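Help wanted!
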Amino acid sequence: DTGVSQDPRHKITKRGQNVTFRCDPISEHNRLYWYRQTLGQGPEFLTYFQNEAQLEKSRLLSDRFSAERPKGSFSTLEIQRTEQGDSAMYLCASSLASGQGNYGYTFGSGTRLTVV
Amino acid sequence: AQSVAQPEDQVNVAEGNPLTVKCTYSVSGNPYLFWYVQYPNRGLQFLLKYITGDNLVKGSYGFEAEFNKSQTSFHLKKPSALVSDSALYFCAVKGQGMRFGAGTRLTVKP
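Answered by r_m:
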């Protein structure tokens, strides 16, 4: 297990379609995070999980967005009825919980979504 | 709420010169501060972190950062810049989820 994997790397979809992205974290990491990054901006926090529990959701995460981590391992992020404004890079990261001494995140390479 | 600010969108330095990328923070309690680097079409890579202890933190690729509590700053530094250091640099502060600054594009010219 060499890092955080995201699939697909690129996704082009038509407006109104649903898309789903997958993230496989580092296996021993119990926390998993989703971020969105648009060109020239820093990553914006969307949501995070500790094991299978979704502990925080940003106000950026509209009702069209849903994330799951059913078995506390991989996670999926679904966007329903995509809009052109959803075009961005979606980044996943994983980490140990803070109390376990490792505060840094390991990021995946991201999924670039283009809505046309 | 935890937040960081990066006052410079762009920093240009000549190869071999020292570089500084600025970051200021606003937190309640003790800050957990980080620097990440992003190369084109890549995810973010961890450079260094300040949790507690020495104010000068050393990280990857010869980078270091100085934590200054009185100025609420955490500037990234390198004594001698390389062309390969050209990238986007993000300062971040840890809350429930890591909060990032808007980023500073560093360009090192030969």
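OP: Thanks! One thing I noticed: The two ends of chain B are 41 Å apart (CA to CA).
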